[in-house]
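DM from R.C. (forwarded with permission)

"hey, sorry to bug you on a friday — could you get me a structure for this? deadline for the figure draft is monday and I only need the backbone to look sensible"
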Amino acid sequence: MSLYIGVDSGTQSVKAIALDMDTGRVVAEARAPHHLIEGLPPGHMEAHPEEWVAAMDAAVGEVASRIDRSRVRGIGVSGQQHGFVALDKAGAVIRPAKLWCDTSTAAECAILTRKLGGSASVIRKTGLPFLPGYTAPKVLWLRRHEPANFKRLRHILLPHDYLNFHLTGRYFMEFGDASGTGFLDVRRRAWSGAAMDAVDGRVAECLPPPSASHEACGTLLPEIAARYGFPSATIVSAGGGDNMMGAIGTGNVVPGAVTASFGTSGTIYAFSRKPVVDPSGEIAAFCSSTGGWLPLLCTMNVTGVTEQVRALFGWSLADLERAADSAPAGSDGLTLLPYLDGERTPNLPRGTGVYFGLDRRTLAQGHLARAAIEGTTLGMNYGLRRLSALGVRPKEIRLTGGGARSAVWRQVAADVFGVPVVAMAQDESAALGGALQAAWCDSKGRGPAAALSELCSRSVSLDESTRCAPDKARMALYRKRQELHDRLCADLRGAFDAR
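My reply, with the result:
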């Protein structure tokens, strides 16, 4: 009779669930908000890590109030990737965390790339290019722009690591989330001396040694166990980045599964038993949080774009759905480059949004709404085609995130991607992944370990009522829209950079 708590700390809220491994069912869930810091210059996206802690304590506390707390055996934490949490020697936060969606570090990426001998050399040495979203350029940004704060720096953690630190008092980082820092050689699963030294010689002293994903970060601190009412022996698993935990929560732990997350940002990823390094650097050669690798594409603009359109017209989600459904596939030629927050794939930190094809017919609410859904999906498909070129060719894609709840969006995804898509029965996949990883970690400490795939099979299921198959005629239409989308992006690169 065992319960496991899964926590997912996202950009604007923390979700918590309780998973009963005896039945494989989620028996309680809760959510608590936190906030982005307002009023920052364009490109800067920051948050106070202390708010994540408060939100986690609130969400876990609410879940705990609905379950038999004595049955809890473990906690697994998922967190937004890449964010830089800077701590001093006492473990106190030095400044707000710069987040994954912060694109203010383009200059630092160029400096680091030059120091390591160019993009091809960086990929040879680490497996990944330096991108503005990653952690390494954020650390260099601190050194260049806030030298007094950099002088105080003693510990570099990622968002989920900081929450683990709050729970256990331990500085800990596992391979999956570590691979998104830009400091890890993903092939060897070891810190890259060249990458660390390119930022500063002190970085090596500030990073915890990377650990295997099946290891426990520790057990709950006595005061935290008392606050939650959980047993003092409750373990805290390694946890991982939201995409790594989302992979577990969608059963993407064996070769052949492919997951697409339609959240504020968009990701598509697949499990691999060996590194999948993209010479062009467009696909991230991440490690998974399961002992393998997780080749991944990421776009920064998905439901964030549709939410802007929805807010513009004062719509409910149902209104947005009806408006998008009222316009034809292809939006009568209206195309959106959805780069409201710059872009990561393709790498356009200074990119902006562009509606192309406006005329008296397409300057209409339904067309604007549908073009937003189509434009963000075409943006994700740009990366999916690159994944396919590297050997990851899906036969089906499992959908998660807010966009997956939209019937219109699911059909657009099937038609653009050209394969069937289906949503998950349990949408909080990252929190579910955290709970499953905690169960996996706990099983390794109690005799013969359960296979993670076996644990997933008990709790991960598809919602077959959401399955959509691609339509051949619309597939052909969207192939043409993709060509235009890519050509517009290429033509406007210089204009973006000149801003």
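R.C.: lifesaver. The first strand starts at residue 3 and ends at 9.
me: no worries. The two ends are 59 Å apart (CA to CA).
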